């Protein structure tokens, strides 16, 4: 896909507390859905949308992410010597040659807004994508590709949104908007994690953003919230006073893999579609169901 957006930011410095103890020494973004880590699904979505520069905002204990996208000479030599050509091709295809990885450190967990702001020197004066690997989105074309198409037609920032249970508004940035036409609406307001009683709607922002560089000035002027963090949602709320920001009800299935149940749902559904596993796995599920 040819795209005017060539850079994507992956905030991967989070502590992964909802998956402790497995995330004590392992990045949550490296948790596998069948045979690929979450961060690889996110990168594949970006690359399929034409993005070439991947900016990872990392923290302590995240070295495994960098290693995953690095060349592993010894392993490739071993696979080739053993004739494991299909596996070798899969390893070499993790990252296309034309795609670059850039790593920036976030020394403290100061929020999503702080993570995005740290990428400013790399992004420069260009629109860019932000992708949260926790949100695995199964879509064709990919969610980011859908959003880039909207950005290129309208020249505005774009947030991916979906309907959420009213009781869950305190887990999301929630928007207020005009009517949707062809899945697109102009955002009038956005609030970070409102209570169900005060939420402006049941449309929550999920982990995909296309942002103009104007967001950086807004984030730079923000102070920390009551939790000591800089919230991307608050920066977008300020951006609304200067620019249009659009919401897109994307086409596709989202799995919240930052949540244990969401992670298990994604694992089961991706296993059902896996070309090497689906028949045996479906047979196993059927037998398990009869044993209940």
Describe the model:
By secondary structure, this protein is α/β, with parallel strands linked by helices. The protein has 2 domains: 7-258, Spore Coat Polysaccharide Biosynthesis Protein SpsA, Chain A, CATH 3.90.550; 259-292, no CATH class. The chain is built from 11 helices and 13 strands. The strands form 3 sheets. It has a 5-stranded mixed barrel with strand order 8-11-9-10-12. Helix 8 packs across helix 9 (232-239). It is globular and about 60 Å long. The termini are far apart. The relative contact order is 0.16. The model has no long low-confidence stretch (mean pLDDT 92).
Q: Might you state the CATH topology name of the largest domain?
A: Spore Coat Polysaccharide Biosynthesis Protein SpsA, Chain A
H/E series: EEEHEHHHEHHEEHEEEEHHEEHH
Radius of gyration from CA coordinates: 20 Å
In the CATH scheme, the class of the largest domain would be: Alpha Beta
Strand content: 15-25%
**DSSP E strands, number:** 13
| Spatial arrangement of strands, main beta sheet | 8-11-9-10-12
Mean pLDDT: 92
Terminal residue distance: 47 Å
Secondary-structure topology with pairs:
Layout: E1 7-11, E2 32-33, E3 36-37, H1 38-48, E4 53-58, H2 63-68, H3 73-81, H4 85-92, E5 100-105, H5 112-117, H6 120-123, E6 128-131, E7 135-138, H7 143-154, E8 157-163, E9 173-177, E10 184-192, E11 203-211, H8 214-220, H9 232-239, E12 245-249, E13 253-256, H10 260-273, H11 278-291
Parallel strand pairs: 1-4, 1-6, 4-5, 8-12
Antiparallel strand pairs: 2-3, 6-11, 7-13, 8-11, 9-10, 9-11, 10-12
Helix pairs in contact: 8-9
């Amino acid at each position: 896909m040819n795209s005017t957006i060539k850079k994507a930011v992956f905030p991967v410095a989070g502590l992964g507390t909802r998956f402790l103890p497995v995330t004590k020494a392992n990045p949550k973004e490296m948790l596998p859905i069948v045979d690929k880590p979450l961060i690889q699904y996110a990168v594949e979505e970006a690359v399929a949308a034409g993005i070439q520069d991947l900016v990872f905002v990392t923290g302590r204990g995240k070295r495994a992410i960098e290693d995953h996208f690095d060349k592993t000479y010894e392993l490739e030599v071993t696979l080739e010597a053993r004739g494991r050509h299909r596996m070798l091709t899969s390893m070499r295809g993790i990252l296309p040659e034309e795609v670059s990885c850039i790593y920036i450190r976030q020394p403290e967990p100061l929020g999503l807004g702080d993570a995005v702001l740290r990428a400013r020197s790399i992004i420069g004066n260009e629109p860019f994508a932000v992708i949260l690997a926790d949100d695995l989105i199964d879509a064709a074309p990919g969610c980011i590709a859908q959003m880039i198409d909207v950005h290129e037609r309208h020249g505005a920032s774009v947030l991916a949104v979906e309907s959420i249970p009213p009781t869950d508004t305190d887990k999301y940035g929630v928007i207020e908007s005009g009517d949707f036409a062809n899945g697109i609406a102009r955002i009038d307001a956005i609030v970070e994690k409102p209570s169900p009683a005060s939420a402006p709607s049941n449309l929550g922002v999920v982990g995909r953003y296309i942002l103009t560089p104007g967001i950086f000035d807004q984030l730079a002027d923000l102070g920390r919230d009551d939790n000591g963090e800089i919230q991307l949602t608050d920066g977008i709320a300020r951006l609304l006073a200067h620019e249009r920001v659009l919401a897109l009800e994307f086409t596709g299935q989202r799995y919240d893999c930052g949540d244990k149940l969401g992670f298990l749902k994604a694992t089961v559904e991706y296993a059902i579609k896996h070309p090497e596993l689906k028949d045996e796995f479906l047979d196993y599920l059927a037998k398990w169901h009869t044993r209940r």
